[in-house]
Please model this.
Amino acid sequence: MRLAISTGGGDAPGLNAVIRAAVLSAISRGWEVLGICRGYYGLLGEDEIIPLTRESVRGIAHLGGTILRTTNRGNPFEFPVQQPDGQYHLVDRSDEVLAAVRNLGIDALISIGGDGSLAIAQRFFEKGLRVVGVPKTIDNDVSGTITTFGFDTAVSTALEAIDKLHTTAESHDRVIVLEVMGRNAGFIALHSGVAGTADVILIPEIPYDLDRVCEKIMARDRMGRHFSIVVVAEGAYPRGGEESIIGASLPGQSRRVGGIAGRLAYDIEQRTGKESRSLVLGHLQRGGMPTGYDRLLAARFGGVAVEVVEQQKWGHMVALQSPHIVAIPMAEALATPRRVDPTHDIVRVARATGISFGD
Model:
């Protein structure tokens, strides 16, 4: 068996732990392993294809990022090609990928990525590629799995920021708005906000009313609590409004949401008269050493992915369905994006402890 591994989409803490576990599990079976650099770029001749050995994965489990590097512009079905006039257009280069797989004698591919990368892997499966998926996203928005690796680390990073913002906000009687990642899912904002005892949490699944947000802030002020912490997911939006888009996406990329923290802080200050500041946590949530939970989950995903290859369950994805890691069809996981359930017990507990969702 000659097995290939690729990492695509945004990076997440734990990718290297998956690679290590998958490589060592494959080698223990006597298989050869290749690493496809920068998503599918290596197979398109635009980057490297490297051998993955015991030596190349030694000591990487605790490292953030990915030794294979990654990209969120590498969809072979819609590959951006620049024209002489500087404009881009998208072309289908998927057949080139399949030809490279055949020429290299690759028997199967483990594709590690979020919903975008898994959708690409599913399309390749439908074209005959023997592929197994590993879900990866700090946003925790892939269905079929209780959680994905990288999420716990991102929440821990956001929580550390919230803890530090409490002291400076209270010292200055300020409102501080912290923007966290998540695209159209509010899991990072919800989990870090509840754990960090934020006063307001705004998520895409519960459109907010700015008046309600300000009411909460002023109610705290009347109680002698002259500061407030607002945690907002980058994809949150007001009732009857739209999400905040920052700039135009490059060809082959999904649109970029964000920038809501600054606007929200300005609006709060205008309405309440309270000094307000904003902070965008940004890519700090993606970087750094994965937590112990994420390292363990990543290692389990990598090891079981090799088992799924051995069982020839092509077109399947590994998933945590506690207490076990199982294999489910990628198409099933991609059918419905995972979102926060507004009736979930975490939301109910948050409301019961005085946290406002702006509704």
User: Anything to note?
Assistant: The domain at 2-149+290-322 is CATH 3.40.50.450 (Rossmann fold). The chain has two domains: 2-149+290-322, 154-286+341-352. The CA atoms of residues 73 and 252 lie 5 Å apart. The mean pLDDT is 95.
